Amino acid sequence: MPTAQSAPHDPGPRPGSARAGGPFAGLSKLSRHAFAGASSKFKEDDSVSEDSEPNNAGRIKTVFVIAMENHNWTQPANQFTGGIQQIYQNINAPFINCLVNGNASVVLDGSEVNISNQVAYATAYHSVLATPNGNNLHVHPSEPNYIWAEGGDNFGVFNDNDPYRATGGTNQNTTDHLSSYLTRAGKTWRSYQEDTDLTRDGAGQLTNVPLPQELWTVPLTSFSGVFSIGSFNAYNFSNQFNYAAKHNPMVFFTDTNGGNDATPSNPLSTQYAPLQQLAIDLANDSVANYNWITPNQYNDMHTALSGGYKGLTGDPAKIRQGDDFLSQIIPLIMESKAYKNHGVIIIWWDESEQDGVAGDNPDDFNHTIGEIIISKHAHKNVGGLPYASPVEFTHSSDLRTMQEIFHVGPFLRDAANANDLSDLFERGAIPHIHDSSDQ
Predict the structure, then answer these.
(1) Which of 349, 30, 37 is nearest to 174 (CA)?
(2) Which of 96, 99, 104, 69 is nearest to 84 (CA)?
(3) The pTM is what?
(4) Count of beta carbons in the 10 Å neighbourhood of residue 25
(5) Rounded Cα–Cα distance for residues 146 and 137 (Å)
(6) Angle at the Cα of 284 from the Cα atoms of 281 and 289, rounded to 5 degrees
(7) Is the Cβ–Cβ distance between 82 and 369 less than 8 Å?
(8) What is the chain's pLDDT, residue by residue, as a tens digit (439 residues)?
(9) Half-sphere exposure of 26 (CA within 13 A, CB side)
(10) Integer angstrom CA distances of residue 341 from 62, 109, 338
(11) How many Å apart are CA 125 and CA 390, to the nearest integer?
């Protein structure tokens, strides 16, 4: 089990970061977005091949993204009080903070291991299009950010509607998005969603037991409720379930959701697995190249359980629910062959939030979003502590990095303008790709 010790040390900014600039460094984030439609031909930076291990052995091969919700990493006010509290140094997030303060110990393969030497994290991750003063387009609520993580744009979506809702559905017909690119390149992807594809008991009530694979569906519609008597969530031990389509990025694109068909006959059904399937796939070494994992809305820090959690209510309960989920799912992934064979876990938060002060602007640079990576190829610890990158990142950075890892392009919209995440990794783990259209 993880240990929670002292609060993490704040290492401050680290000068000399290799990718703090970039060709668009002199432009505001909003100005840079004007270039987002530019197409890029992919050419690998020759220097990467020279610096990495033979036959690309040192590069990331498998990605696990765990999506968390609605909290700032740091915020200027009400840091540990109020309706929305920051995650960094919060006592209700002991596991997360042990990851970054160097004290994260978990049991792997029967032995207690400190995993913080495989951790790096961002200190300047902001909302997409954010500017220092926040005078920019605000990409909220949750759903536009998940769509952005898949396509490099929100496609005009500023709501949380299900993709095929009768009025205001948000499904997109473009095939230019990450999972589509992966499929065309012969790479695999799977979306693991908690509280989907569940069996019913004799009275017709849902239980926390998944259906057999032949009865899986594409989870196009959000739903929530209470399990039948005697059925409980495996992570928080409550009897509540809450699946939100808005937190499932692949489900908003026709070519990766199979159309408006919520039956097992949908040919994309097996791309969307109930979360219970993750443990089976890890054990069988049958996970995809790119794996998106979304907890339910209690385990992702979005919503507090109705009865509270471990004596907590409100935002402290939300934070602890998500922290406990991560403390259980991360060791499970780390024990797998897929992780050990050049894998990476990315803990990703969807958006910045207001901290409760009048006039507060969550899209300025005083509000940061959490981004933590766990990998044997993470940037080496500095002074005995996980590396804290000062490079400016957004969701476009993750998207660009996925395209570089899996070598699929051209860069998708705003990904063409973003810093990739290579500063969080050892040199050579992320192949640098650049625009070679003029060559």
Answers:
(1) 37
(2) 69
(3) 0.89
(4) 11
(5) 16
(6) 55
(7) no
(8) 333 333 333 333 332 333 333 323 333 333 333 333 333 456 665 333 333 344 455 799 999 999 999 999 999 999 999 999 999 999 999 999 999 999 999 999 999 999 999 999 999 999 999 999 999 999 999 999 999 999 999 999 999 999 999 999 999 999 999 999 999 999 999 999 999 999 999 999 999 999 999 999 999 999 999 999 999 999 999 999 999 999 999 999 999 999 999 999 999 999 999 999 999 999 999 999 999 999 999 999 999 999 999 999 999 999 999 999 999 999 999 999 999 999 999 999 999 999 999 989 999 999 999 999 999 999 999 999 999 999 999 999 999 999 999 999 999 999 999 999 999 999 999 998 765 543 3
(9) 1
(10) 8, 15, 5
(11) 9
Token code pair at residue 235? 């992570």
| Cα–Cα dist 397/32, whole Å | 13
Q: Which two tokens stand for residue 133?
A: 């003063």
User: What type of residue sits at position 412?
Assistant: L
Domains detected in the chain: 42-435 (3.40.720.10)
Distance CA 306, CA 226 (A): 11
